[in-house]
Amino acid sequence: MRRALFxxxxxxxxxxxxxxxxxxxxxxxxxxxxxxLARELRQRLSDGGDxxxxxxxxxxxxxxxxxGAYSWSTLxxxxxxxxxxxxxxxxxxxxxxxxxxxxxxxxxxxRFTHTGHFTMxxxxxxxxxxxLFARRLFEEHVAEHMNAAVxxxxxxxxxxASSRSTNGT
Length: 169
Description:
alpha+beta; 7-stranded antiparallel β-sheet; elongated
């Protein structure tokens, strides 16, 4: 009887304890000014997502996708302030999540940095699965989008440079 009670207590505690997982910071240099990158991010979110409501400084949108074998969907409150974009998880695959993108000027470009944390459903078992799989997939997904911004602006810079050299300026 004692073993059964102890087992039930362990299972109950394992489900009730919900540690969060820190995302490792990721940072890139984007060859554009912070205000332009912020405008682009806002436009891409507005055009590409399932936006439910939007005002001057924020939006609420649904996002979904797949990262490896893991499919996810979320409802996010996205806030735009100078030099920063915050994502606050409202509902979806995670128990909770908060992400922050900072956009800092750096020698005519932008230091674009992502930080955040999330909590998986399922208590300690969810935390272990998050630690082993979900965090890496989450970080890879974010890095893919940030690297795409780098590539978009790198190709713009090279096409601007080639048009300047073609025009003799």
